[in-house]
Design goal:
This protein has about 210 residues and is mainly alpha-helical. The protein has helices at about 1-15, 20-30, 30-40, 70-85, 90-110, 135-170, 175-205; strands at about 45-50, 60. About 70% of the residues lie in helices and about 5% in strands. It has a two-stranded antiparallel ribbon.
Length: about 210
């Protein structure tokens, strides 16, 4: 679901221009970053769904700390606090929400393997709507998020380019070359991001 998470980050970026895209992309994948760390430390793991090849959506995760409901809320709160200190309240609230958006999307896609409490304390029922069991639907969801992310990011970038053009015009420093560069930068940034989305989704689908 990594491409879908990135797509959501781009959507948020189009509405929160003051935040760098890298920070939003890191935020939306922060739970997975924690999972990787805990995986190598031996605290979390995953297994292949029986009878499958372990491809797209064919894994069951035992991520009872990084992806538990309470654990995800804790990580989101920690990210919020750190961001509040560095970038202020408004940005902190956005970053905290983006971090937790990862759990929400995983709740939709995961095969009922998300714990409620860290370490699956008390053995409460695991959560997950299991969209991964319907691969075309899960892929479609990711594609929609990626397309919307690219679309909104492009239009926000072009609006920002026009704004910069006008600012240069008011200061008397506007040139044709500078005007073209603003728009070219917006187009190039959108293309690079779109290629990243497509490559990430393709790798997720094609590489077991």
């Amino acid at each position: 679901m990594l491409a879908g998470h990135f797509g959501l980050a781009a959507i948020v970026k189009s509405r929160q221009q003051q935040l760098p895209l890298w920070a939003l992309m890191l935020s939306t994948s922060l739970l997975d970053v924690v999972f990787v760390a805990l995986y190598f430390l031996g605290y979390e793991s995953y297994s292949v769904v029986p009878g499958t090849g372990g491809g797209y959506g064919e894994k069951i995760f035992t991520a009872d700390y990084s992806h538990s409901l309470v654990g995800a809320l804790g990580i989101s709160l920690l990210a919020l606090i750190i961001t509040w200190v560095v970038w202020g309240r408004r940005n902190a609230l956005v970053i905290g929400a983006v971090v937790f958006s990862h759990w929400i999307l995983d709740f939709v896609t995961h095969r009922g393997d998300l714990a409620v409490l860290p370490g699956n304390t008390n053995g409460l029922p695991r959560l997950g709507l299991g969209l991964w069991s319907i691969q075309p639907a899960a892929i479609a969801l990711e594609l929609v998020l990626c397309i919307l992310g690219a679309y909104f990011y492009y239009h926000a970038s072009m609006r920002n380019a026009v704004k910069l053009e006008r600012q240069r015009g008011k200061t008397g420093s506007s040139t044709a070359a500078a005007t073209v560069n603003f728009r070219q930068n917006a187009i190039v940034a959108t293309l690079v991001m779109t290629v990243l989305f497509v490559a990430t989704l393709a790798a997720d689908i094609l590489v077991p």
